[in-house]
Amino acid sequence: MPADPAADSLIRVWIVEDHATYRRSIERLCTPERGLAPPCAFSNGEEMLTALKQAGLNDHPEVMLLDVGLPGRSGLDLIQDIHQQAPHCRIVILTVFEDEEKICEAVRSGASGYLLKTAGAEAVANAILEADVGGSPMSPSIASRVVSLLAKLMKPMPQKVALSPREGELLSLMVEGLTAKEIAARMNLSIHTTGTHTKNLFVKLEVHSRAAAVARALRDRLV
User: Fold this and answer.
1) Model pTM?
2) Closest CA to 177 of 211, 221, 131
3) How far apart are CA 17 and CA 81, in angstroms?
4) pLDDT at residue 149 above 70?
5) What is the CA radius of gyration of the chain?
6) I need a labelling partner for 122 at 20 to 30 A (CA). Which of 31, 137, 161, 211 fits?
7) How far is CA 77 from CA 2, 5, 69, 194, in A?
8) How far apart are CA 95 and CA 90, in angstroms?
9) Where in the chain are the domains?
10) Tens digit of pLDDT for each residue in 27-68?
11) Which CATH class is domain 5-149?
12) Spatial separation of the C-alpha atoms in residues 201 and 99, rounded to whole Å
């Protein structure tokens, strides 16, 4: 049977969360109407890693919602293993923890976003969409703290990064705090094209997230 083009366009989402009720509530958010495929859900990291190793490239998650306080290995401990198996997967941390040490460790390890579990259903759904196009969704109460922490901890790059005019504009808009959708509108580009530019910018800046890119811009005075 030929593949359904509409199904292929849906974002592949994996959820790793040990609280069954909360996990099911997130699963219910993932609907085709939101542009999301039915998710794969796991209660611990070991099951998820086993499935990830067995999955074909076309079945890898594009966005993963990852709890920190999992049984066995913590979510923070899993991030590097996930990126080894699925380097293009965007990881959004979902947690009750708001302390700076865990936040900073998550972002430095390569998480794309960090949401508190107090975030509403629509905020979580929008975070998946934003992460998929290169954004870094974060709960407002922690976003500015993450950037400040990363700017202090980052070492300057040995050579100043040469950004194209388009990349410079993109980075400036990130520093202004615009969302991925707002940046696309300001630059008169599709959100997917903006996502491609964002990923290329991250490679140049040697970062994995928008928060780290903003921190790099402030630390090295790139904008």
Assistant:
1) 0.73
2) 211
3) 17
4) no
5) 17
6) 211
7) 39, 36, 10, 30
8) 16
9) 5-149, 155-219
10) 999 999 999 999 999 999 999 999 999 999 889 999 999 999
11) alpha beta
12) 29
DSSP sequence for the chain: ----HHHHTSBPEEEE-S-HHHHHHHHHH--GGGTBPPPEEESSHHHHHHHHHHS-GGGS-SEEEEESS-SSS-HHHHHHHHHHH-TT-EEEEEES---HHHHHHHHHHT-SEEEETTS-HHHHHHHHHHHHTT---B-HHHHHHHHHHHHHHPPPPSS-----HHHHHHHHHHHHT--HHHHHHHHT--HHHHHHHHHHHHHHHT-SSHHHHHHHHHHTT--
Architecture of the domain made up of 155-219: Orthogonal Bundle (1.10)
